[in-house]
What does this fold into?
Amino acid sequence: MDKLTAYSVKLKKVVEIKDPELITMKNGRQAVRGVAAEDPSSKVFRILGKDDVEAAKKLIG
It folds into this structure.
């Protein structure tokens, strides 16, 4: 994972996540929430697997 991406339903394509935020859902799983870099009015959300959590933390900072 070299950059954080997510599928945007509104744009119907995979976009890069701008201003990513690592969150924990109610069931304890980690996810990344942010806005699409191409369209700031589109919110995107990506649920992370166990292996992706550490890589996402490094990319977010």
